[in-house]
Amino acid sequence: MQPGYLLASVLLLAGSAAAQETAALADTPKIEALDPNMAAQEPGTNRVWYNGLDLGVEGQGWKDVASPFDRLPGRAEGVVRDPVWSLSRRSAGLCLRFVTNADAIAARWTLRNEELAMDHMAATGVSGLDLYVRENSQWRWVAVGKPTKFPTNEVSLIQKIKPGPHEYLLYLPLYNGVESLEIGVAQNVTIAKAPPRPVGSKPICFYGTSITQGGCAARPGMAYAAILGRWLDVETINLGFSGNGEMEPEMAELISELDAAVFVLDCLPNMDADQINERYVKFVQRLRERRPETPLVIVGHIIPQNLWFSGERSQKLGDKAAAIETAFKTLREQNVPGLHFVAGESLLGQDGEDTVDGVHPTDLGFKRIAEALYPVLKALLNSKNSG
Asked: Which domains are seen in the chain, by residue range?
């Protein structure tokens, strides 16, 4: 098959149900099937493996990366602090979007770090894969890739898929790095890059802490940035750095390179009052200088779920609250435009049932954070589109 052969014409061979769905794809001529000669045949089977990079990586703000599934550009090494650089090599938020008429999908991925799980976070979230399918204009979960060994895992994600071409979204691990990723399908089926995002569509960039990165989601697709990406149907860039979302000036410089629809800043849990006083206003000012029209959503400090019963963290939170109030007063006095604030009290529920340790959310907690941020981001995207 030639690389320019349209997916729609190929999938007409898949039967009447596939043909009906393919008719809808005929309006998107930019969808092109991957050349089957690019696939590696699995000896003794009907399965072939496609390099995930040939399907394209979403959620990556820079293309000049040192390794294909990094989150910061290679030139950031030695510029950002070493812990930030190390964490940027974890694949949080990265995903593949593709279309195939396969009746079964497998995956094979090689991990960078030997630690598959953490004490408070499952291996499926730390090192696993997470597969969604678009159904009636909504993304629905269908399979998880469970990691069981280091470095390479191979899993059958899903079988006996109903006929027709379907669009998939495959999330990469949240707290591990990925060296390589392959998608396995039967030899006689077609696989293609998903339709491009609408012309002019820009990603939402999230910068923050372990919570932003996805700790402690059970699956990669349950990090709140990923949830919002599906609900809003936009690309998201996850720049969460566990314990290291500290608003350094070098991160302001890097993030300001991104042409985003919205910047979401969720760093307060990693910063003490002195850091807030020293860095917050300067960070926002630098983003505003470089990106004068991009809305900035400031996320408040998440409220520890046992604070009502224990005052252990009360003083530090009070000091932080005073520091951020001062920072906002300064920004208002300077008439810095386009700032939107989401209070920390709105992020989680009042029942104490949505974290693993009082701070790091479970899947329920991430869903609640997404619900708190969704109306703000939806309104901003609608405003930009209407403008």
From this structure: 7-58+94-193 (2.60.120.260), 204-386 (3.40.50.1110)
